[in-house]
Design goal:
The structure holds 2 protein chains of 2 kinds. By secondary structure, chain A is mainly α. In chain A, 57% of the residues lie in helices and 0% in strands. Chain A is globular and about 35 Å long. By secondary structure, chain B is α+β, with helices and mostly antiparallel strands. Chain B is built from 4 helices and 5 strands, in the order E-H-H-H-H-E-E-E-E. In chain B, strand 3 and strand 4 form a beta hairpin. The longest helix of chain B has 15 residues. Chain B is elongated and about 50 Å long. Chain B starts with 16 loop residues before the first strand and ends with a strand. Classes of the chains: A mainly alpha, B alpha+beta. At the A-B interface, helix 2 and helix 3 of A face loops of B.
Chain lengths: 82, 139
């Protein structure tokens, strides 16, 4: 899966989880910028991403994220390289 | 008295199962009607229920969900848990005084956020009554 595909899949996961059909992900986007992206939805987002991409995160990896760009980078590092 | 289990994150393994019997009585139905304010005749009037094609009044779905609360809060994982979400399908009606079993399985552990996905099923020997998944934070 290339970078563009990861962004596309992640966008769908965020839209479904946060119930925001028009949400556009950008690298600098944070939870503070998105209505409804609260602490519970953040947990559900992490779980949904793990399931959709078939990967697992550690607590430290999640706690260190500062924005969507870093989240996407983490997903990319976790995915098996072809 | 607090008799809730107190499992910690490390005590819980994927695949762990829990089950207990349930049987809703007429008294349970009356108390739930008062609690919820739902006195729909489908749950209170046998003649009405039969007119809709059921053998008798059917147990409230909300009352069945209360047993999921018991599953999570008392058994798996018990007092260290907070329910984060619930998906449930009501597949077949359950009738008053009908014996059923609620069974749950820890389907997934998400270590990163300490969230469990517990799939559950309420069933009699003859039918599935309800099934779904509870998402539970362990604190």
């Amino acid at each position: 899966m290339n970078n563009a595909e990861i962004w596309e899949v992640a966008t769908n996961v965020f839209r479904e989880t946060l119930d925001l059909d028009d949400l556009v992900l950008t690298p600098q986007l944070t939870a503070r910028d998105v209505e409804g992206w609260d602490s519970l939805n953040h947990i559900l987002l992490v779980v949904a991403v793990e399931q959709r991409f078939g990967i697992k995160f550690s607590t430290g990896e999640i706690d260190g994220l500062e924005n969507v760009g870093q989240f996407i980078d983490l997903i990319e590092r976790k995915l098996p390289h072809e | 008295m607090n008799s809730a289990a107190a499992l910690g994150w490390e005590d819980i393994a994927e695949g762990t199962e829990i089950a207990f019997p349930i049987c809703v009585t007429d008294d349970d139905m009356q108390r739930f009607a008062r609690l919820s304010g739902d006195v729909s005749p489908l749950h209170t009037d046998p003649a009405f229920a039969r007119s809709k094609g059921y053998d008798d009044v059917i147990v409230y779905g909300g009352l069945l969900v209360s047993y999921i609360s018991r599953l999570v809060g008392m058994h798996m994982p018990g007092q260290n848990s907070v329910e984060a979400g619930l998906e449930v399908k009501f597949v077949n009606p359950l009738f008053v005084d009908e014996n059923a079993t609620l069974s749950g399985v820890v389907k997934r552990k998400h270590d990163s956020v300490r969230l469990l996905e517990i799939t559950f099923r309420i069933a009699t020997p003859a039918k599935t009554v309800a099934s779904g998944v509870a998402r539970v934070l362990v604190r």
